[in-house]
Design brief:
It contains eleven helices and no strands. The protein has 193 residues and is an all-alpha fold. It has a single domain, classed as Hypothetical protein af1432 (Orthogonal Bundle), CATH 1.10.3210. Bound molecules: fe (iii) ion. Residues 37, 61-62, 163 line the site of fe (iii) ion.
Length: 193
């Protein structure tokens, strides 16, 4: 294996270890841990035949919850941890915008879907509805039009729908090791000298 490949694989393994270690203990107002939620989200992405970068985005979309180290019940403190921006910025060391943009936009996608899909809000969990209030609330028409025009808006909306679905207790899904080759395939190509 080339040394650049080895470094990349090591980076991916470290990311998965972080998710495994901290995601098992971390909850975010739902009945399942962040690790279980992340694995379910990635599973739904793969079932939908998403590309490696999009499955990677699904698996890692909530890593910002783990990184910022704030309490899982942050919504009740009335603060917005901005986990989507924290996660996207952190992951940009290894992944390009095909991975980081759907993650950065997945909270905005919830606000967008509330504005554009009349059935959507009834499918949200209570924690998700509560957190939306501190995330800016339902988008205005102008905000929704601007969101729609973003290059990765469609992928962010797909990710959001898997995210909302991925809150099922006791669902059997593949473990983190299943995603090692997928994350490796999604790594950004090393800069050419
Ligand atoms: Fe999520």
């Amino acid at each position: 294996m080339q040394s650049a490949d080895m470094t990349a694989t090591k980076n991916v393994q470290e990311l998965l270890e972080l998710l495994s270690r901290k995601g098992q203990e971390a909850y975010f107002g739902e009945q399942i841990s962040i690790l279980e939620h992340s694995l379910q989200c990635a599973y739904f992405a793969e079932q939908s035949h998403a590309s490696a970068p999009v499955i990677t985005a699904a698996l890692l979309h909530d890593i910002g919850h783990i990184l910022h180290g704030l309490a899982e019940d942050i919504a009740q403190y009335g603060k917005d941890g901005r986990h989507e921006a924290i996660g996207a910025a952190y992951l940009s060391h290894w992944f390009d915008e095909g991975v980081t943009e759907p993650i950065r936009l997945h909270v905005a996608a919830k606000r967008y879907l509330c504005a554009t899909d009349s059935n959507y809000i009834s499918q949200l969990s209570p924690a998700s509805i509560e957190s939306m209030q501190i995330q800016g609330g339902i988008m205005s028409r102008e905000e929704a039009i601007a969101f729609d025009a973003l290059p990765n808006a469609r992928l962010a909306v797909l990710l959001r729908r898997w995210d909302d679905e991925a809150k099922i207790q006791h669902l059997k899904v593949p473990g983190l090791e299943h995603y090692l080759p997928i994350l490796s395939a999604a790594l950004q190509a090393p800069a050419t000298p």
